[in-house]
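I had to read the description of the data format several times before I understood it. Each protein is reduced to its one-letter sequence and a matching series of backbone shape codes. The format is easy to grasp once an entry is in front of the reader. For illustration, here is how one protein appears when written out as sequence plus structure tokens:
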Amino acid sequence: MLKAISYYGALALESFFGLFGARLYEEPRYDVIGRVADRVEIRRYGPRVAAETQLAIADDAGNNEAFKLLFAYIAGANQASASGDGKIAMTVPVEVRNNTLIAMTVPVQTAQHIGGTVMRFYLPAKYSRDRAPEPTDARVKIVAAPAETVAIVRFSGSGEYFTAHQNELLEMLRGSGWRPSGAPYTLYYDAPFTLPFLRRNEAAVTVIENL
């Protein structure tokens, strides 16, 4: 009971500060290895572990349902809850892929998803694939994301015009030393109630260096 109170109390505090754009959540570590046209940042991420769900529902309805499933997982809908260790700290960013053809990463290397929503919560760095609590809902999977190089462009606002920002990112990469390897997606760092002009959103795409 005390653990539950502490967990939700911490979330409430984090949410309060998040209203003003302050972020207290853990974020996957990365190194900035380059820039394109000033606005585009090239990052190198190490291997990460994520909770992921794929739904055949697009747009806001798909995002809302996917978020509920993943939040339920970190809040205790997992097999470790019986021992009292099933609650997982919230992290940022939330990765969202909508209405696209996606080649999934390890361990689901050949899976594809047309339309709908794919959402990921990256787990705190202390979790490996083997140590992450197993979800009790079959719609949530634990996936190991490999090390990768990612190009991003940051934008504020509600994030509803994510497609325009993804296209902008692809256009800025054209003719640079980096080329996209896969479909673009969006990273969200703030809750919907954060003041729009303080929100941190990022259009992102995996890239490889032109040799």
